[in-house]
Amino acid sequence: MAVDILLVFASEHRRLRQLVARCGRSSRGFHDPVRELQLALRAHVIAASAEVYPAAAERASRWPGDVLARVRREVEDPRASRSGLAGSTQSLIGAEQDVIDALTGLELTERRRLGRVFRMRRDSLLRASATTSRRRRSQTELYETARRAGVEHRSRMTQAELQAAIDARGGR
After folding, report:
1. Are residues 161 and 120 in the same domain?
2. 57 and 98: one domain?
3. Cβ neighbours of residue 59 closer than 8 Å, sequence gap 6 or more
4. Which domain does 97 fall in, by range?
5. What angle do CA 127, 97, 53 make, to 5 degrees?
């Protein structure tokens, strides 16, 4: 497993591109690729802002701070759209090329330390977001909850639609 921050960023950018591509396909059932992309982007930006960006800012000839701030606002927006998140992902990857250029001058031991810190923070944030999300319920459980909440046309809904209707009604 790569720990050099340059390799970690390369694999992270590849993963973010895959999530963007997954958002373009239709999702069946409970899976919400837009939410998954938003959580991954949020974890990436927060983890990188902790130590990686400050270390790179000291060495950078040009700094994409405005782009990074805009991306951070986008991922914090609960109403972010698929196209907005896809654009933010592309902006982030482009801006982080300047960050990567600045980090290439660091010693290998420092780059490895940054890579470990980044991965630990990112993984911690992803785990935290997974535990706070709702429990995955079966279609039958969701249908019964929707019936008790009085959701109309529930028999034609998918799991994701049932969950959204229950959430809109303020149900559990």
Report:
1. no
2. yes
3. 102, 103, 105, 106
4. 5-133
5. 55
CB-CB contact of 36 with 25 (8 Å): no
Domain boundary among 133, 149, 164: 133
Report the C-alpha gap between 82 and 34 in whole angstroms: 6
Number of domains the chain is built from: 2
Q: Are residues 146 and 170 in the same domain?
A: yes
Q: Residues 46-103: pLDDT tens digits? A: 999 999 999 999 888 888 888 888 998 888 888 888 899 999 999 999 999 999 999 9
Q: Are 56 and 66 in contact (CB under 8 A)?
A: no
Task: Return the DSSP state at 156.
Answer: G
Instruction: Check: CB of residue 152 under 8 Å from CB of residue 164.
Output: no
Q: How does DSSP classify residue 150?
A: T
Q: Are 162 and 154 in contact (CB under 8 A)?
A: yes
Torsion angle (degrees, nearest 10) of CA 67, 117, 128, 45: 0
